[in-house]
Amino acid sequence: METQTQAHKFPLSLEFDNVSTLPDSYEWSTTTFPSDDPCHYTNNDRKALLPVIDIGEPGAYDLVRHACEKWGTFQFINHGVPLTVFRETELYELVPATNGSDQTQCLFHLNSYSVCPNHNRAMGLAPHTDTSLIIVVNHSNISGLQVYQDGAGWVPVELVEGALVVNVGNLMQTLTNGKFKSVLHRVVVNSICHRLATSFFLMASSDAKISPLRKLVNSSHPPLYRAVTGKEYFQLKYKFFNKALESIRLKK
C-alpha cells in the first residue's frame, strides 16, 4: 500500500500478507479532504460516470475537450497503444524515465497496492492533483481509482476493457488558463486483490516555462496564472501540496 501526503508521516510501504488487522499508524483520517461518502450511481445514471471516449470516432476531439473542461479526466478506447507496454513494466517492476523534447519529459511510474485488512480504514493513495501536464494510467483490470467531482463526490472509475485513463495535471490547467481542470483523485485499497497501476507522465522539463497560451488570453479572459518553470512548480508542489496551483494564481 502506498501513501502520499504531507499531513500523514507513514512508512513508505507495508506488506500485509502476515498482518490480520490494520496498524493504527495506517488508519486514514479524512477531515481535511472532501466527503468520503461513497458515490452509488448506477450505469443508468450517465451523469456520474467518467466519460469513455472512442478515440477513432468522429467528434472525439470535442468529446475530449469537454471531458477535460468538466471532469479533468476521461477513459479512452481504440487508442492503438499496446497494453503489453504497461504489463511488461508491471512484470519487471521498473520505473524507467525517458527524455522527450527540450520542453517536456516522460516518466513511467508503477504503483503497487497490497491486499489490505480493514481496507475501509486505510487509503492507497491520498487525494491529490498531479503536477504534470497529462497522465495516462493503466489500472490492470482492478478497480480502486476514484475521481472527485463537485456535486457528485467521489466517483469510482469503472473498469472498461482495453481502456486507458487520462488525467489532466496542474501544469495543463495553467497552460489552458483554467479551461482544463486538474482532477482531484485518490486510490482506495481492498481486502481481496493486489492491485498494480502503471502511469505515464508527460511533464514539463526543469527549465521549461509554463504560462497560459496567448490564444486563450484576452481582455475578457485575462491570464489566471503567472509563468512558472517546471523546476519551480515542483518545488511549490512539495511545499504547498494541493495548494500549489493556487500559489501561482494571479490576483484580480
How would you describe this structure to a colleague?
With 252 residues, this protein is of the alpha+beta class. It has one domain: B-lactam Antibiotic, Isopenicillin N Synthase, Chain (Jelly Rolls). 16% of the residues lie in helices and 24% in strands. The chain has helices at residues 60-70, 84-92, 170-175, 230-240, 244-247; strands spanning 52-54, 73-77, 97-99, 104-113, 125-128, 134-138, 145-149, 153-156, 164-168, 185-187, 195-204, 209-210, 228-229. Strands 1-2-9-6-11-4-3 form a seven-stranded mixed sheet. A hairpin with a 4-residue loop joins strand 3 and strand 4. It is globular and about 60 Å long. Mean pLDDT is 80; it is low at 1-13, 31-47 and 93-98.
Quickly list its features.
four-stranded antiparallel β-sheet, alpha+beta, Jelly Rolls, seven-stranded mixed β-sheet, disordered N terminus, single chain, 24% strand, globular, 13 strands
Give the count of helical stretches.
5
Q: Structurally, how many domains make up the residues?
A: 1
Question: Which oligomeric form is depicted?
Answer: single chain
Q: Look up the CATH topology.
A: Jelly Rolls
What's the SSE pattern? EHEHEEEEEEEHEEEEHH
Poorly predicted spans: 1-13, 31-47, 93-98
The whole-angstrom Rg is 18 Å
Overall 3D form = globular
Main sheet: which strands, in order across?
A: 1-2-9-6-11-4-3
| Helix share bin | 10-25%
Protein structure class: alpha+beta
* Total number of beta strands: 13
Assigned CATH superfamily: B-lactam Antibiotic, Isopenicillin N Synthase, Chain
